[in-house]
């Protein structure tokens, strides 16, 4: 299995930006579709974005479409989530995950990172 470690979270004011990174080890991410999910306090984990192995296809949750961008650097074995125009409701723990096939469901993804906290203040 691929091991995933997220970084880049932190505290930001509403309207600000953050870029999350997900560094993979153990296996190359070229063989995997990748995704980002998030879990807010008291809520279930939800889909944020996913990207195909080549990077040519992406999916986004409606709540982040136009504000977040998922990308991948296969040479660096890293996946990114650029988050712009952040809102307080984006506050959550953000998780990176890998999948054999491109999907949007939590069940589609097999390996998960430990998460990174993003807090957006109003």
Main β-sheet, in a few words?
7 strands, mixed
Rg: 13 Å
> Globular, elongated, flat, extended or rod-shaped: what is the shape?
globular
Q: Could you state the order of secondary-structure elements as H and E?
A: EEEEEEEEEEE
Please count the helical segments. 0
Helix/strand/pairing category = mainly beta
End-to-end separation? 39 Å
Strand tally: 11
User: What amount of the residues lies in strands?
Assistant: over 45%
Low-confidence stretches: none
Which bin fits the share of residues in helices?
under 10%
Mean pLDDT: 96
Structural key phrases:
122 residues, four-stranded antiparallel sheet, 0% helix, single chain, seven-stranded mixed sheet, mainly beta
């Amino acid at each position: 299995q691929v091991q995933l470690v997220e970084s880049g979270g932190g505290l930001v004011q509403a309207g600000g930006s953050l870029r999350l990174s997900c560094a993979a080890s153990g296996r190359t991410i070229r063989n995997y579709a990748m995704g980002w999910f998030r879990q807010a306090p008291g809520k279930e984990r939800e889909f944020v974005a996913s990207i195909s192995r080549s990077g040519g296809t992406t999916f986004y949750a409606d709540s982040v479409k136009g504000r977040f961008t998922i990308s991948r650097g296969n040479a660096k074995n890293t996946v990114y989530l650029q988050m712009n125009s952040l809102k307080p409701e984006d506050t959550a723990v953000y998780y990176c995950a890998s999948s054999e096939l491109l999907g949007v469901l939590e069940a589609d993804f097999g390996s998960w990172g430990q998460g990174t906290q993003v807090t957006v203040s109003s």
